[in-house]
Specification:
- The protein is an all-alpha fold and about 210 residues long.
- The longest helix has about 35 residues.
- Keywords: Cell membrane, Membrane, Signal, Transmembrane, Transmembrane helix.
- This is VTT domain-containing protein.
Length: about 210
C-alpha cells in the first residue's frame, strides 16, 4: 500500500509540474527571459559563458521546454567551433538529466504516456537487441518529439552510457545546423524572435 501511495504522489506531482510548464510557456514572457539570459552571458560572463550556456540546457530539457534558442544563441555568441561544442555538450547533459528523471521518480508517469505513442512499442523491442543503434537512428531521424523521446527511452533497457553517446552523436547534425544559423544572425532579437509561437507548436505536437 505504501508503494501504491508513493507512486500516486509521484504521478500527481509530475502532472502538476507539466501543467505548470505548459502554463508558463503560454503566459510567461519566456522570449524576453531567454533574451535577457543570453545578454547576461554576452555582457557579464566572459570565458565562463559557454559553460553556463551548456548547463542551462538541463532545466529546459528536463521541463520539456524547447532549447533551440540556446543552440542558436551559442552560434551567435561564440561562433561555430565554441558554440557547437557548448551546445552539443549542453544538449547531451540535458537529455541525460531527463532520462535519469524518467528512469527514477518519473517512471510511473512515463509508462502511463506510452499508450499515446503506440509506434514506440516496436522501438522498445528493437532496443533490447540494438540499443545504441536505435537511439542513434531516433536522434538522426526524429520520428518522435525530442523532449518526450528523452523520457520514453528512459523506460527501455538501454544503458545511460549508450543513451548519452548515441544521443550526442545523433544530435550533432541538427546542432551544427542551428549553431551555424546562429552565426549568421545580426542581433539577439533575431535569436529569440518567434520563440513563443515555435514553443506553442512544439507543445501541441508533443501532446
Amino acid at each position: 500500500m505504501a508503494f501504491h501511495w508513493s507512486s500516486l504522489f509521484k504521478f500527481t506531482f509530475l502532472l502538476l509540474l507539466l501543467a505548470a510548464i505548459a502554463t508558463a510557456c503560454f503566459t510567461l514572457p519566456v522570449e524576453k527571459i531567454l533574451k535577457d539570459f543570453l545578454q547576461w552571458i554576452e555582457q557579464d560572463l566572459g570565458p565562463w559563458g559557454p559553460l553556463v550556456l551548456a548547463v542551462a540546457y538541463i532545466p529546459l530539457t528536463v521541463l520539456a521546454v524547447p532549447a533551440s534558442v540556446l543552440t542558436l544563441g551559442g552560434g551567435y555568441l561564440f561562433g561555430l567551433p565554441v558554440g557547437f561544442v557548448a551546445d552539443s555538450i549542453g544538449a547531451t547533459i540535458g537529455a541525460a538529466a531527463a532520462f535519469l528523471l524518467g528512469r527514477t521518480i518519473g517512471r510511473s508517469f512515463v509508462i502511463s504516456k506510452l499508450k499515446d505513442y503506440p509506434q514506440f512499442r516496436a522501438v522498445a523491442i528493437a532496443i533490447r537487441k540494438s540499443g545504441f543503434k536505435i537511439v542513434l537512428l531516433l536522434r538522426l531521424v526524429p520520428l518522435l518529439p525530442f523532449n518526450m523521446l528523452n523520457y520514453l527511452l528512459s523506460v527501455t533497457p538501454v544503458s545511460i552510457w549508450e543513451y548519452m553517446l548515441a544521443s550526442w552523436l545523433g544530435m550533432m547534425p541538427i546542432t551544427f545546423a542551428l549553431v551555424y544559423v546562429g552565426t549568421t544572425l545580426k542581433d539577439l532579437s533575431d535569436v529569440t524572435h518567434g520563440w513563443g509561437e515555435f514553443s506553442k507548436t512544439r507543445w501541441v505536437r508533443a501532446k
